[in-house]
Amino acid sequence: MFLIMIKHYLNRVLRDKIMLFVYGLLPLAISGLNYMIFSANTQGDAHMLNGYNVIASSIVMSILILFQIFSSSTIIDYLHADVMGGRRWRLMAAPRSFFHYIFAATIAAVIFSMVSGAVLLVVSYFLFNVYMFNLGVVFIVMLILSFMAQMFGILLFIFFKKKSTTEAIIMVSGFAMQIFAGRLIMGFSLGESVDRFFQHYTPYTLGLNAIFYSGTFAAEPGSETFQILTDIGLVNLDMGRAFINIGILVAISVILTAAVYMVQRRRPL
Amino acid sequence: MSIASMKKVVKRYGDFTAVDHLDLEIKQGDILGLLGPNGAGKTTSIRALSGLLDIDHGEITIFGKKQTTKNLEIRRRMGIVTQEITVFTDLSAEENLRYFGQLYGLGGNELNQNVSRVLDFIGLKEHAKKKPGKFSGGMQRRLNIGCALVHRPEFIIMDEPTVGIDPQSRNHILESVKQIASEGATVLYTTHYMEEVQAICNQIQIMDSGRIIAGGTLEELVGGMQHEDTIRMTAATASTGLTEEIKAVSGVKDVKVNGNDYVIVSTADSGNLNRVMEIAMRHGGVKSITDEKPTLEDVFLTLTGKKLRDEE
Questions:
Q1: For the domain B2-223, what is the CATH code?
Q2: Record: fold of B229-296
Q3: Residues in chain B with pLDDT values less than 50
Q4: A189 CB near a chain B CB, below 8 Å?
Q5: Is any Cβ of chain B less than 8 angstroms from the Cβ of A40?
Q6: Using one digit for the tens of pLDDT, what is the confidence trace for B141-171?
Q7: A-chain residues near B104 (CB < 8 A)
């Protein structure tokens, strides 16, 4: 039955044209646009290494992570449709636990988010010669971030009970993490310690750096390519640090899940 | 045999008591109409009966078992039609029915047969593959009802299922309710439309301020009411003599004259119709005369002091 419920939620999101556009086409469009802008500022083949485009790789992974964070809008859509109106009573009247619906919707949202991320990876691999880093790490990061995003979305929705407010907070927090990490506006700085925090310890940078640590771009030190790699934050293979970042993301997810459980008991959806 | 009962049920929201020591019994095969003005506590009562709300006091029993918010077995045997249309607009009519059937544990051939039967029953077989977003209000309502019937519930609660639909769809729904009951199901029906209750319900309960204030069959409710009789008459010729003679009849409380039209109010069961007609015949004749009996609307108005439906 649980699988039927997951399938039901997937069916709904896959028939939502807006969601398909936002999570299917928009990441590709933004990646492509960014790629064109950055490529215009580089000379020759300096951005190509081992047959991969290092700029495109950085951009695509950044967009991939950002859209996993934004993916909580899927669960918020479900909650808004199923919990806030009359449908709440209709679904609760069925012989299923209320939590079954929430879990099924969460899993469906995670699957949808990961599939859209996979589409971005595959298309950008062929279009922009994007380096895939360690695909296992990429998918684990996507999975954790997407789950974390759903938990964060549910938590916000419990507090605000309003779709627009919750979505606005998620958008602002996602972009803030990207901007303060210096990955949207080059040279943006709030001081060394704040910069350091945002460049390493937000869910966005924890996920992004875990992916970057999982791959290797061995450019010759001092070369133009090496400079590009340094500028865009691509680092050499360090699986230990990749796993530390993943561990921190898991810990944050567990804390968020516990928070959802406790807050829901005190302030039911 | 009692299918459902509520005994001294109380439900409070803070200081507000939505349901106040409510007693209600529904017998197998009944179509029980639950009437009440806005805020009477109908929806809260229905939710409590459905096991969707914890109650503060009292006991609810359905199919001989205690109803609680955790009793999923009772829910499996019940069907709920909500006031709001709760179908999924992204799924086709058939997919909606299938999903609701699956939520109630149906699968395989049983599910296929029930979906097909319900599509036929609600008159949407030809629209099975269409999404309800493209349906008229009446078709959406019918699908909403179908989703509550697909698992063949023994007890169905319908909370204002005909709000805002065309007369054709309303008639279809009312006929469907009668058919469901004739097949052995029990129905609790709330509505703002008095004529619907009169048309389909064999039992009526009137609710106000969280309590049942009157109940019985339509005849019992109307017959048991202390009410004035009203005679409306159009005389062939009006005259002071006619008016004075009618006023002098035993039991007549008030006579209003407007041209040739008379409205004569007497005490209940005074049987003045013949007497008034005799007098009028002596004063030039009668064009028309009717004896107005109290209606369910009158009963409701008298008991609650409110109209069931706001003026439209």
A1: 3.40.50.300
A2: Alpha-Beta Plaits (3.30.70)
A3: 311-312
A4: no
A5: no
A6: 999 999 999 999 999 999 988 888 888 888 8
A7: 94-95
